Amino acid sequence: MSDRTMRAVTINEFGGPDVLTTGRIARPEPLPTEVLVRVHAAGINPVDWKTRAGHGMAGLQTLPLILGWDVSGVVEEVGFGVTTLAPGDEVYAMPWFPRPAGAYAEFVTAPSRQFARKPDSLSHVEAAALPLAALTAWQALVDTARVTGGQRVLVHAAAGGVGHLAVQIAKHLGAEVIATAREPRHTWLKELGADETIDYTRRRFEEATGDVDVVIDLIGDADDTDARSVSVTRRGGLVVSIPSGVSDALADAARQKSVRTSPLLVEPDAAALAAIARLVDSGTLRVEVERTFPLEQAADAHRLGETNRTRGKLVLDLAQ
């Protein structure tokens, strides 16, 4: 078998988990300013299974497609002009998003400056769980909301991949953090820094809290969560609606109360990944990996992820 091929999980049509098939294909070659990274682990995110099903970022992709954006691995080769990385460097990234990155494979190529050095204190599996989720939380809280000490921040779906990191980053910024999640996750979320926890299955969050400066809405218009969030937000406060953007209902409710709204789509950001790595290595931020799967079981990982009941992240471990 030629060493210029690699294992990869591909899809030839959009559909259910069974469209994910594992085989061997030609491995990519780095262009000038790019690096070739040997993937040790690839994180799985909701956008992966939404895209696989024909939603999410499907409209920006062409078939056949290798899914996945979260990567942790080791630089194998560097293209002409690369000065910041060298073969042997351990790196992590969310390259190319929302264009295809092809993370469910043994190798990926991307611009060198979309990669950051992996946190020293994490394994590749743990590091692969971070990029998309941590960058989403960082860009929502730091870049968009510009959260400062003393503000009240409400995080919906706080036990999920983005949510559990958003709780910790908001706390690091000095905020008072309110987290919505099912009751069995409450003790864990308080260990991560949540000051208040709300079981949304037992009580509507707008009956349990209020006077919030920033809402990080990771649910969207399901059960009108986005529009209902306005009722707990202070005049002039901000609702960042991440999964589906600003719906008409959210925009209308926000105008009536003089609340600001913002959509957010995460972008590659090596500088933010470097800052996130420092938080991880200092013990300020930790990532939760609920379960790992070998590359060949990507379909099983998608089936579990689609239950929306996981704690933290799921990861493909290419060493398994």
UniProtKB/TrEMBL annotation:
SUPFAM superfamilies recorded: GroES-like, NAD(P)-binding Rossmann-fold domains
Keywords: Oxidoreductase
Keyword flag Oxidoreductase: yes
Name used for this protein in its record: NADP-dependent oxidoreductase
Database matches in Pfam families: ADH_N (PF08240), ADH_zinc_N_2 (PF13602)
Single GO MF annotation: oxidoreductase activity
Enoyl reductase (ER) domain mapped to chain residues: 15-316
Signal peptide positions on this chain: none
